[in-house]
Design a protein that fits this description.
By secondary structure, the protein is mostly helical. It has a domain of 31 residues. The chain is 61% helix and 0% strand. It contains three helices and no strands.
């Protein structure tokens, strides 16, 4: 069915039916535009390979030393 056919049929509706159709179309389009909700938990473990082989205590101590030198 083409858009022009739908419009032709919509012209045959009463004003209240057109409003109902418009509301239904709006809801349909709004559903299409909705993005699925995402969760921060999906990021768990992302980039963990970057930290492999790094001593976290030593790394944190380096950062603290840099902060101490900056002040």
């Amino acid at each position: 069915m083409s858009v022009s056919e739908v419009l032709r049929q919509a012209k045959a509706l009463t004003p209240n039916q057109r409003k109902e159709l418009l509301k239904s179309l709006h809801e349909l389009v709004a559903k299409d535009d909705q993005k699925p909700k995402r969760s921060l938990f999906e990021l768990a473990g992302l980039g963990k390979e970057v930290w492999q082989g790094i001593d976290t205590d030593a790394y944190l101590n380096e950062l603290r030393d840099e902060w101490d030198q900056a002040t």
